[in-house]
Amino acid sequence: LPSDLGKSVSKEAEDPREVEKRVRARLRDLVDRFSLDAVMSSGGMAVIDGRTYRASDLVPTKESEQIVFTLAEVRQRSVVFLYEGRRFELKMTDPGH
User: Fold this and answer.
1) CA-to-CA distance for 41 and 47, rounded, in angstroms?
2) Residue 69 near residue 81 (C-beta atoms within 8 A)
3) Is the pLDDT of residue 8 over 70?
């Protein structure tokens, strides 16, 4: 229509799956920047970046003050972080790597 001539072309809304994919990739990158130094799975404790945390503690990221993970689970050689319903596992590095 002539009245629509100056308007921009409508765009399709962004695919929610693509948005989720990018969010998960960004969160995974933040998790991978942590260093899992030690775990005491029987006590539900882990040393992450030189600080001791217990299961259910909040673990802040260095890069983003707005993103804080919950230490959901302490396993034998890994921990599981939780952020807004998304789970991420961080494993201890093998000696020599």
Assistant:
1) 11
2) yes
3) no
